[in-house]
Amino acid sequence: MILVTGGAGYIGSHTCIELLQNDFNVLVIDNLMNSSFEALKRVEKITGKSVGFIEGDVRDNALMKQIFSNYQIEAVIHFAGLKAVGESCALPLKYYDNNINSTLVLCQTMEEAGVKKLVFSSSATVYGDPSPETLPLTEQAALSATNPYGRSKLIIEEMLRDLPAADKLNNANPWGIAILRYFNPVGNHKSGTLGEDPSGIPNNLMPFITQTAIGRRKELSVFGDNYDTIDGTGVRDYIHVVDLAKGHVKAVEKLLSNEGINGAQAYNLGTGSGVSVLQMVKAFSEENKVTIAYKIVDRRPGDVTAYYANADKAQKELNWTTELTLNDMVKDSWNWQSKNPNGYQQ
Ligand code: NAD
Ligand code: UFG
């Protein structure tokens, strides 16, 4: 059985589908602070399989101990965490508490239970503000953080790298840890029944585009058109969430294989291609035949110019590569939003 923390969330729910479709049993723990139980009901409907669910907080030591003693957990995927960059600048302690403490409690209970195979949700944000000559980014690129959210991911990565190092000193069973650095996940399951449903005003580009297209927002604000990029707008490596979810299955399979994962290994999960904000707006409008009203506004503080991945390591070691295109991303995003104008709150 695979324990999925934060499994009711956007990436977690898509990963549950891929796990179930690959015949893994899945147990989710989620406190539903940024998600809905409805997402897991839809996962069950899509797959025709059931998902175990415990409503609770990963920081709850006693609950986590109980889970590891009641269930035969083989490996853990740890999605649970907070992810809004702006909020993390205003409420850094909330971010350090949730993101770091949840990982600490999780790893302590895993170690006590002798379950030492972990997949961790990291982010391309750990590359800070990369200079153009470092693109595409490999896992060796310099690490830094520009905000408390990013710093929480960096601190956790450092902590995770200490665990296999300690095994050697203690002659203990080895940890195997896949640190997956996601680039920019977008898109939704092709059924249009499962998707990204941010509460309040979306921070991220794609939900803002889809909510503008459905009429919930008047227009998209494009944050700056004077960056040193193809059209002056920010460039990112957008990855379809289903490809990303499949990357987690590959990482779990590798961890559970005889070969395993040696220590704590970081893997970039991205397509390798950079897309600008205006290119994304154009792709969305053309594929879905809808107009997106937009205006150019000032740069968003803390935004970086451009980054995209070199994902060769994931291809070589996890046998993973992206399959879905930019057109799939914009088509599936619109399919979800147009079928669920108000997200899960129909
Ligand atoms: P999400 O908010 O949709 O999912 C996170 C889930 O974790 C939610 O269901 C939330 O209720 C749950 N949760 C949060 N704290 C918890 C706690 N202490 N105990 C139990 N449950 C808790 O976010 P997502 O986009 O699916 O992101 C998942 C992970 O991937 C996060 O760690 C995030 O930092 C990371 N990540 C996301 C992106 C992105 O752009 N979406 C990019 C890079 C990395
Ligand atoms: N953008 C706009 N208008 C908007 C929203 C975004 O122009 O309303 C632009 C941004 O300026 C940026 C691009 O669209 O150039 C992408 O912005 P997002 O907010 O969608 O994504 P970020 O690259 O800023 O950050 C996201 C997550 C982080 C994560 C990072 C890498 O929010 O948590 O991807 O995975 F760390």
Explain this structure.
There is one protein chain. It contains eleven helices and 13 strands. Strand 1 (2-5), helix 1 (10-21) and strand 2 (26-30) form a beta-alpha-beta unit. It has a seven-stranded parallel β-sheet with strand order 3-2-1-4-5-6-11, sandwiched between helices. A two-stranded parallel sheet has the order 7-10. The model has no long low-confidence stretch (mean pLDDT 96). It is globular. It has 346 residues and is an alpha/beta fold. The structure holds nicotinamide-adenine-dinucleotide and uridine-5'-diphosphate-4-deoxy-4-fluoro-alpha-D-galactose. Residues 83, 85, 123-125, 182-184, 203-205, 208, 220-223, 234, 236, 277, 300, 303 line the site of uridine-5'-diphosphate-4-deoxy-4-fluoro-alpha-D-galactose.
Summarize the structure.
This protein is of the alpha/beta class and 346 residues long. Helix content is 41%, strand content 16%.
